[in-house]
Amino acid sequence: MGSVSTPSLPSPGLAPRLRDAFLAADFTADGLLDLLGAPAYTALARSETVPALRATREDGVLSALVRLFLLQRPVARERARTALPLEECLADGWLVRDGDEVRATVDVRPYGGPEGQDWFIVSDLGCAVGGAGGAGGQGKGVVLGVGGASTTLAGITVRTPVASALDVGTGSGIQALHAAQHATRVTATDLNPRALDFTRLTLALSGAREADLREGSLFEPAGSETYDLIVSNPPFVISPGARLTYRDGGMGGDDLCRSLVQQAGDRLNDGGYAQFLANWQHVEGEDWQERLRSWVPRGCDAWIVQREVQDVTQYAELWLRDSGDHRADPAAYAARYDAWLDEFEARGTKAVGFGWITLRKSGSERPSVVTEGWPHPVEQPLGVSVRAHFDRQDYLRASDDAALLADRFVLAPDVVQEQVGPPGAEDPEHVVLRRHRGMRRATTVDTVGAGFAGACDGTLSAGRILDAIAQLIDEDPVLLRDRTPRALRLLVEEGFLVPAESGPTG
């Protein structure tokens, strides 16, 4: 992909001084919340800027910076001079003159790091607030700032210290910025060379180390190198054509996401993780879970979580609004909408799923591939929960039924028990165990399962607990031992029970 016809970007040389000015003025995530108040701050995530404009009408250094870099409003030159090294910002291209006022050439969004770091994400004008918001009208190579997809991927990523990390399709650089905190070496790639320039600005303005920036598609720029961590928020939108580089894959259907997943196995070091956001087709006559299992490369465990499903009309409308087509001529909008439906009909696509795909290079001949639909609320960040999921798979893969019954378990600390039944009834109809952290799972158990879980304090083996329960309910302990391991495996797999001495804690 060649360069896009958009203005040149600022020089990163001034970034350290600019960062100092931003911090001195409290142009940070916390500072914005204090200045704007919660309602106006939250409205920004919905692409609504009027409340923030009202909150920044009065003079003040922070108000000037918010108007310039977040709201893209002109500011009087003298007002800007009180907040910034004005002449240097003009010379380096961060600002441009507009009569007696100045304007920013890029969006800068304050962003709070996971340990309270003050970071700044740099993107194209109009793309820092609320995601795309019709950014498609700005040109094919537009680079977005922070959106819901960006923060979702950052939250689910496993954050253990690693030697090398690869961010495929880096965009404005938020994933590379996160990776720079725990990876010795970070490589970031993008088909759009402008995105690499934005990543360079994001890292410099956030005070992070430089990354190895490479232009190209998918894994092509990485050559034969392998990594301990691969992350990608790719252009996963399934659309007719490739109008917008930042979102449209440019391959047929969901082929881009499939290619990315299938090729990742050869790019991972042993024990390494690859984590993606993706869209996938629900094709007439095919099971979506089986379809995605076929994507998983040999030698990798996988956890695939479908968070949302939209029918083809909902999906087309979502992305036509994203590109601003709904504001175009009605006939042009109808023709474009029709083209999307033609594309889906030709491929037998009845719906589109969205979710997360995590691979781990295990080398196992019996790989664990878990696919599930989970539309329920979760608690971010989930990186620890993702790692614990794979640790549990390792434990269960190495433990036969006899080993499970000989092991000791403890109840995860976030588990609560709920009893369901008519008010005043002596016994509940069923018992629900519910986790309040991570994926916030719930599972129904019988009274034996509830009693067993409640007795797991790490003192007695699972088999000894079952023997005691069998005596209490007057059941054959051999039969109870025979029928329990399957339920025990589920409780361990979903994190309700944790091996007492070793293994996962998530």
Task: Write a concise synopsis of the structure shown.
Helix content is 37%, strand content 24%. The chain is of the alpha/beta class and 506 residues long. The longest helix is centred in the last third of the chain and has 18 residues, at 330-347.
Q: Give the helix level as a range of percent.
A: 25-40%
* Major sheet strand order: 8-7-6-9-10-12-11-13
Question: What Rg, in angstroms, do the CA atoms define?
Answer: 26 Å
Low-pLDDT stretches are 1-5
Number of helices, where a helix is a run of at least 4 consecutive DSSP H or I residues: 20
Shape: globular
Largest sheet geometry: 8 strands, mixed
Overall strand count: 19
The overall pLDDT, averaged over residues, is: 93
Task: Please explain how this structure is put together.
The longest helix is centred in the last third of the chain and has 18 residues. Helix content is 37%, strand content 24%. The strands form 5 sheets. It has an 8-stranded mixed beta sheet with strand order 8-7-6-9-10-12-11-13, sandwiched between helices. The protein has 506 residues and is of the alpha/beta class. The N terminus is likely disordered.
Attribute tags:
single chain; 506 residues; alpha/beta; three-stranded antiparallel beta sheet; 20 helices
Question: Which helices and strands appear, and what pairs or packs with what?
Answer:
Blueprint: H1 15-24, H2 29-36, H3 38-45, H4 50-55, H5 61-70, E1 75-76, H6 77-81, H7 86-92, E2 95-98, E3 101-104, E4 107-112, E5 118-123, H8 148-156, E6 162-168, H9 174-179, E7 183-190, H10 193-205, E8 212-215, E9 227-232, H11 255-264, E10 268-283, H12 288-293, E11 300-311, H13 312-322, H14 330-347, E12 349-361, E13 369-373, H15 383-398, H16 401-406, E14 408-411, E15 415-420, E16 430-435, E17 442-445, H17 447-455, E18 457-461, H18 462-473, H19 477-483, H20 485-493, E19 497-499
Helix pairs in contact: 2-3, 13-14, 17-18, 18-19
